[in-house]
Each structure stands twice: as structure tokens, then as C-alpha cells.
Write a structure and sequence with these properties.
Elements: H1 3-15, H2 19-27, E1 33-37, E2 41-48, E3 53-57, H3 60-65, H4 69-73, H5 79-96, E4 103-111, E5 114-120
Antiparallel strand pairs: 1-2, 2-3, 3-5, 4-5
Helix pairs in contact: 1-2
Length: 143
């Protein structure tokens, strides 16, 4: 299990969130890809292409020390930009995986560190085994 997803899974379990089983069942077997937005702020993406859903994951360290740290030190709250940042990461991910024609159709916030996006595309869902564009992952996910 990728490290970031393990942390998320443990967090959901500790919070008693009913989304734990859903996230685990839907995303645990996927390898994360990394997309960056803004000033190279990275987010892990778990893309369930056949379901046309993706889980965007941040981490608590990045939420506090990432882009805009000067604003945060002056009393800025990362929560004020969280929705926009996660939406930007989802859109950027679709664009960078050559799915510019896809549009985001729904959004489910599980925690401050993870949001699921549903999307639709003009083209059909690729058959299993089709080579698709992938973004690089990282060895130490979440850092």
C-alpha cells in the first residue's frame, strides 16, 4: 500500500469515518501519480480511470509549509485556498494526462487532505490493458 494512502487510511480509521471502506476499496490498489500546481506544490493522484474518478491527496506538512508560507505566517489559513488548490490539481492532472476534453462533474471532500473528483470525457473508457499517459510517481509519497 503506498505510504500516503496508508496514512489516509489510518486517519479515516481513527476518525471512524465511513469513507474508510470506500477509499480503501476504490483506491488502495492504485499507484499514485504526482501533479504539481502553482509554485511546484505537489499532490498525489489516484486515478480510477474505468470509474472516471480520482482521489487527490495532500499532506499536513504541505498544507502548513507549502506555497504561500508568508501568508500563513501572517495568520493566513490554508483552508481558505484548499478547495481551489484541489480543483486546480484535478484539472491539471486531466490536462497533463492528455484528457483536456474531460470535465469535472462532481466533488466529494473526505478530509482536509483528500478530495475525490468525478469526471466525464467525450471519448469512451479505454479497454483494460490500453497504454495511457501517466505522470511520474515518487518514491517517498507524501513528503
Amino acid at each position: 500500500m503506498p505510504a500516503a494512502l496508508a496514512v489516509i487510511t489510518l486517519g479515516l480509521l481513527a476518525s471512524g469515518c465511513t469513507g474508510f471502506s470506500y477509499v480503501s476499496k476504490t483506491y488502495v490498489s492504485l499507484t499514485p501519480q504526482v501533479v504539481t500546481i502553482g509554485c511546484k506544490d505537489p499532490y498525489e493522484v489516484y486515478d480510477q480511470r474505468r470509474l472516471r474518478k480520482m482521489l487527490i491527496v495532500s499532506n499536513s506538512l504541505r498544507e502548513v509549509t507549502g506555497c504561500g508560507i508568508d501568508d500563513r505566517l501572517e495568520g493566513g489559513d490554508p483552508a481558505l485556498t484548499r478547495t481551489k488548490r484541489f480543483r486546480d490539481a484535478a484539472r491539471t492532472y486531466l490536462d497533463e494526462t492528455v484528457r483536456e476534453d474531460c470535465r469535472i462533474t462532481g466533488e466529494t471532500v473526505f478530509t482536509d487532505l483528500q478530495t475525490e473528483f468525478a469526471y466525464t470525457c467525450a471519448g469512451p473508457i479505454e479497454p483494460r490493458g490500453t497504454k495511457v499517459p501517466r505522470l511520474p510517481g515518487r518514491n517517498r509519497v507524501g513528503l
